[in-house]
Amino acid sequence: MKHLLILLLIALFTLELDAQSSHLMKIKGSIHDEEMNASLANASIICLYAKDSSRIKLGFTDQNGHFFFDSLPRQNLILYITYMGYQPLIHNVKTQANVEAIDVGIIPMKRTGISLAEVEILQETPIVKIIKDTIEFNANHFKTKNNASVEDLFKKIPGIQIDQDGTIRVNGEVVKSIMINGKAFFGNNDPKTLSRNLQADLIDKIQVFNKISENGLDKGETNKYINITIKKNKQDLFSGELSTAFGTLNRFSAKANLSRFRENQQILLIGDGNNTNGIPDINYVGGGGIVRAWNVGANFMEDLNRKTTLNASYSMDDKFKIDEQKSLKQNFISDSILFNDEDSRTNNRDINHGFSLQLEYKPDSLQKFTFSTNNSLSHSSNTFNNNYASNKNSKSINNGIVINNGENNTGALSGGINYEKNFKKKGRSIILNLNYGNGKSKESKFNISRNTYFLETGESRADTLNQHFKIDANSQKTLFYINYTEPVQKNGSLTFFLGTDQTNDSYNKSAFSYNTTNTLYDKYIDSMSNIFRNVSAQYCGRISWYVQKNKLNYMISLSSLSYNFNNKDIHLTNISLHSTILLPLFNLNYSISNNKQIRVQYSKETQFPDITQLQPIPDISDPLNLKLGNPKLKPASSHRFGLSYNTFDAISLRTLYLSIQGNINSDQIINDTKTDSFGRQIIQPFNHSGGYSISFDLNRGLPIKKKANTITIITRSILQSSINYVNGNRNINNKLLASQTISYNSDQMKLFSYALSANINYNYVHYSNVRSSNTNYLNYTISYSGNVNLPLGITISTLLNYSYTSGLTAAYNNNIWILNTSISKTLFQHKQGMITFQGFDLLKQNKSITRNIEVNYIEDIRTNTLAPFFSLKFSYFMGKGKK
Predict the structure, then answer these.
(1) Which controlled-vocabulary keywords does the entry list (predicted)?
(2) What is the pLDDT of residue 3?
């Protein structure tokens, strides 16, 4: 009976599909120039209902002028055809009985002299255009609330997600940079700064695309970028925001930004400060710790003349954070577990200044010189107080107190010149690049600890440390490369690359113990002091073959990377490492159609150890975890592969993204951890092969009800295997993460908008050495956020968030409700003013609990959070009078 029912359901489903397909048809044809009879590639074709001219689908002709539509309703239709330089054309298509595919043949287009009958075309401006691997969105279609930011606009765009910290993702992939009118801002690396400081009503188009970046001797990796274009009627207008808020518990926030964009000039000034963990509005749940931050930034770009462009930026951030934490750490020692309880407080302040200048000179249309410099100054200070206790098999092993504090001052200067030349032969080019960098740092830190260790005999041993460390570090780097590209045949090109990277690092560490006689730190500790030098040279040669066809492009590359390492210190003889690594790369992109693409990727990557991993001098700032470097470390390698499929329907705005990514490690830098009888761990890195990871991602966007509502489905799973050694025994740690998110967004901007989402995460962890520590844990979150728009410009907003976690240590499981709410009112004629009353964490339940899983331990941490507070905010938005 059961099998019969299943067969019946399958039959009914098949009949339904057949019934649906019987009401559908296909249309194909081609577009030509009427006079020359030449095919017109990339002509835009909008398919419309004949009865009311509403849109059904949007398409483009291929390189041969052909077009094809499938799954069209079996009704009389209109094809509205446009092409730059030609008169628009309307072509009627009448249904034919028992004909499922209609060939309209060649449709000629005239350059001039055609007169069209009037016809009303709904939404003539396309919502989305797909041009090769670029997706362009018409920002006017995506409605936002009054005075919304670009970040608010991004949340409406199919495929774009915004994390709680402001990180921007496209189908799960982090966006590396946002450009404005094709030009980069803020050193090309801070998308959040732009998205939160520009107004949404400035934006005309949003373009999402991939870009291959070259960075020194790296082979070039494909990253995700967003370019936003400014509306023409806003390009000579100053726009910005001034806002301030004051609240209970002395909470405050202030924000100011001003921007203007012209054809030959771009200006952006920003400034903000707060002690509310940077929460922009009630739709965000603050993380752990208490943060006070000030930020200032300025960016200026101008075409000084037809040949010269200047781009300058300055940024400053001052951040002070207080973390109060309680943690329980399970350290796996061969076949047993060492438990470590900690209660700590950390005060950390970081002040950073950055200035960059770029001058671009084009003597003619084929050549370009780029001069650039980047400068930075940083100061950091911190204090750390920690009370700890460890036990094994319910017996005390150690306890104590640790007090660390220190300061660090760092300065860096770099500059370079880049020359690019395109030859008259199309596709032939050459790039010459020379860069130099110099960085210095001075660090002073104090390490005070009082430790008690309990012996097996029942006796105890006390150990007190009071030390001062002075560290001077210097790094010099010189990079030069030449890149030459030669076109081969019709669609191919060969690229030859030669480069060298010379680095000279020095690290001088002096250790002193406290002298109780004169109360000075003047007792030199030879075993903890070091003068370390690392001189490295890398030489890279690479040849790449690139093919670009109508639907297919691919690149095959092979690099030969030779390196020489020379490490020298005052304790050991010189250690030299020499080797040559072959680094292959393969990228393939295939367009099944205008809106369906497949990408295949493979590359071998390498990572060099940093100077702290190479030094054989112990770091005892944490008395329970003593770190020791290894001057014999080799570079780590990994094999990366990926397969992805992406489809985007420009009419329905439905999206689908599937991805499988993998990584296999070779000579991975892992840790060898040894635990002594006092419960102290001595950790030293070394090379080992065998770890791997595999991930699967699915992102699905399903707009419904005339695109006012959207269902988003995000599925992610990760399988990871890592290796380390504990007391000489090999330990394999396997982790599985499975995550599912479903969200529903309803956008009726005149009345209300809301979002419902549910997320569940399942984690499974397996240890080969200590199987009793194998664990699994679960957490899920349900969230509602919504706005209700009332008369007189009043809006009520609410966030209700529920989270539940099980499977952690008993005291760290959580069951939390978060309620934030606000009421706002627009002011003045053009609604350029707004006053908002906000309440955060009204139920007083906010907690920050995290779990860290590493190859030899599991750690649960609870961190302090902001207490509930209310605030009153006033905002004034400039540039709202011009529509």
Answers:
(1) Receptor
(2) 44
